[in-house]
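Translate sequence into structure tokens.
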Amino acid sequence: MFKNTIVRVPGENYINGLTTANLGTPLLEKVLEQHEAYIEALKKCGTEVTVLQSHADFPDSTFVEDTAVLTSKFAVISNPGAPTRNGEIHAMEPSIKSFYENIYYIKAPGTLEGGDILQIEDHFYIGISTRTNQEGAEQLKTILELENYKATIVPLEKFFHLKTGISYLGNQTVVVAGEFIDHPDFNSYKKIIVPPEEEYAANCIRVNDYVIIPAGYPITKQKMNDAGYQTIELEMSEFRKLDGGLSCLSLRF
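Result follows.
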């Protein structure tokens, strides 16, 4: 059960954020509407939402997930791999400290972003991507094992972040797309397979009694409903333009 979530309102500078997508410039009015709907969904799921105000120095800072890895017992402040995002951790640190006393830090030359970290019960999977390097992954693995968690490092082939292509829904069930459909690290789990044309829907979030999914992916939604999950659909067009997904927009703990 998640009791708390942290989000940050997108600022006017959001349109200047980093992206590898070729989907056009975000429309700020729609960005804010979609973010407000996201907050309301988190409330519907039963979490207390801490809403941080936009940060003028960091266009990408609404993607708060990349700044930390949170567990029930401790927090890890990350070290984002994009230089223009690195200062986001200092902006987030006071909020993390208001909830946690036991805090670890990923230190340079290690880089790590929360979008590359997937928790499945007591087992963490750590993606090696363009934003999370081997050194950062090894640091996190050491921290997790010190705290009696299991950890597996997973080099990525194509996906931007680990959680771009896989999500955990509870009940030993994962949603998988692309390179993770037959990936040996995930073959022990039950799978909901996302078809190639709906790959974006692989990034979804289980929040208590609901699974929040991006709107517009009917095959994946039906598979989740058939598996017994209640879904909430949210429009994500303006966040997708900056490589963002549902998990990126909150820290959940």
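Note: The CA atoms of residues 122 and 189 lie 14 Å apart.
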